[in-house]
């Protein structure tokens, strides 16, 4: 039996057999939360799909709006859309791997709409 399948509990050193799994819905919600943070959009605006790539790693597909600066403010986005998507894909893969411990083989980001990134006032 491998060390991964046997866990020790507390100070008593009791060894327990079993396994730990992260359910599909937990993986999807984690991908949504990580993507919402990386893309600076609301969690409810993000859709995620997580699938096994057939080689033990995960493929993550994200559909979210593109956050744009306030129209008429003459402010340009910090970076081009393609660069923002590329940066977000890397951030999503790394944060997802850190949180779940699962390897991510591919992240696909699709911007399906856009939202105005309104600055929030500090109270």
Characterise this structure.
This protein has 123 residues and is of the alpha+beta class. The protein has a single domain (22-116), classed as K homology (KH) domain (GMP Synthetase, Chain A, domain 3). It is 29% helix and 31% strand. It has 2 helices and 5 strands. The protein has helices at 24-39, 81-100; strands spanning 6-9, 14-17, 47-52, 58-68, 104-116. The chain has a 3-stranded mixed β-sheet, covered by helices on one side. A two-stranded antiparallel sheet has the order 1-2. A hairpin with a 4-residue loop joins strand 1 (6-9) and strand 2. The longest helix is centred in the C-terminal third of the chain and has 20 residues, at 81-100. The N and C termini lie far apart (56 Å).
Short summary of the structure?
29% of the residues lie in helices and 31% in strands. The protein is of the alpha+beta class and 123 residues long.
Features:
123 residues, alpha+beta, GMP Synthetase, Chain A, domain 3, 3-stranded mixed sheet, two-stranded antiparallel sheet, 5 strands
CATH level 1 class label: Alpha Beta
> Number of DSSP helices?
2
Return the CATH topology: GMP Synthetase, Chain A, domain 3
Write the CATH architecture name.
2-Layer Sandwich
What characteristic shape results from the CA principal axes? elongated
Order of adjacent strands in the largest pleated sheet: 3-4-5
Estimated radius of gyration: 19 Å
- Structural class, please? alpha+beta
* Number of DSSP strand runs: 5
Question: Could you describe the largest sheet, including whether it forms a barrel?
Answer: 3 strands, mixed
- Into which percentage range does the β-strand content fall? 25-35%
What is the count of structural domains? 1
Order of helices and strands: EEHEEHE
How widely separated are the two ends?
Answer: 56 Å
Which spans have pLDDT < 50 for at least 5 consecutive residues?
none
Q: Residue share in helices? A: 25-40%
The average pLDDT is 84
Classified in CATH, the superfamily is: K homology (KH) domain
